[in-house]
Amino acid sequence: MTAIHVMLWFDTEDYITHEAEDALLGLLTMLNSRKIKGIFKIVGEKARKLERNTRADILKQLMPHEIGYHTNFHSLHPTVSEYSEKFGFAEGAQEFEWREREGLDDVTRITGMTSKCYGQPGYSWAPQSFPALRKWGIPVYLDVHDQITLDNKPFWYGGMLNLTDIKGIMRMELTKNGLQEGIREFDRMYDMLMQENGGFISIYYHPCEFACTGFWDGVNYNHGQNTPRDQWQPAPLRQAGEMEAYIEMLGSFLDYTLSKPNVAYITSEEALHMEKSNRTALEASDVRALAAATSHDLTYQVYNGYSLSASDLHSLFCKYLLGEDLVPELIYGPEHEVESDRSVNVDVSAIIKAISVEYPRVLAYKQLPDYFTVAGFRINPVDLTCTLASIISKELNDVDRVEMIAGALKPKMHARTDECWGPKWSPFPQDLKVPNLVRQSQLQTWTLKPAIF
């Protein structure tokens, strides 16, 4: 039985250097000769460039592979992080959809395939992208990023399966000794994962790096620079024959990986289908057990095959008290973190009335309000959810009095707090700081939970 699942993905982005197209074709030809499926995350402008250059040969070779989306213009300023920093969560989701939808539509139209995954350009991540991607039907976030981490394992965040900070991320470097070093690294990861009864290895490249010694955006978009289209410069090229040699070297590396027992290459869609979290309705007894396990520390729970985020639990507790079907529902985190009024003691009926209101929306999806109004008092969603759990576990009635519990959203610890992103990616302005994105990434850990494989 296959135990090691390898995802091989290519950020297909250089829409300036012509030789990057030859590298893309060479990689596709090499993969197709081995019947290995790759994952090609394509920039909108790159797809349009292939269309303008009538590269039907490349588009035909792409057909057996999985397509992902990689934004409309990649490094053109303002990048995703730069423009998203200026917006709240709901407005930022609308802005992402407005700026990036054109590229997705063009990738779909030109390749004839729908995108199954998304990954950010470089380090240019933003929590506001998730509702838009989910609305577009993109279920998987596949890339390398460490703003949200969960023990180096796959996780759910923002309603998407995230394969961004897993233990098995690697690559064979395109250097003289790259093959030998890549084999040693693969063997190390293989042995480690086999001891853990299997897992994922994520291998990533850019087609352009097989043709070039530097990156196209480093030439045209470095440190906030926006080179006009009529002044774009290609990336520096490798010497004659190097591109072909490195593509052949990658082929040899892939051959080696497949010589190991229990290894298979999969797509992000196949990884999604392997995820086994239960999504059916729970019994009332299950919700009571979940409530009993919730104290003043509100966090995700893995229970009887269910993986439930804090917002899933909030939805279940509300549905239990409102007499609705007990199906977990993802609700996005609030726009702001506010303090609750303190020393609040009210009837349970007042709390039930408070949770009966219409929730705000992010695009088409529910979002938690910054606070609920309970008998005239402001109560934040964390405190309210912890109090709901107490009401359910104690089996209180409408007329019973309850004191609001002061809670804490524990999954926030899985969001990094470093707001200085300028040095993390060369196209960023070197002094770029993103305190708003960091704050919002913490608030959206309401949606964080482990993936179950």
TrEMBL record:
It comes from the Bacteria. The lineage of its organism: Bacteria, Bacillati, Bacillota, Bacilli, Bacillales. This is NodB homology domain-containing protein. One of its GO terms (biological process) is carbohydrate metabolic process. InterPro entries: Glyco_hydro/deAcase_b/a-brl. It comes from Paenibacillus montanisoli.
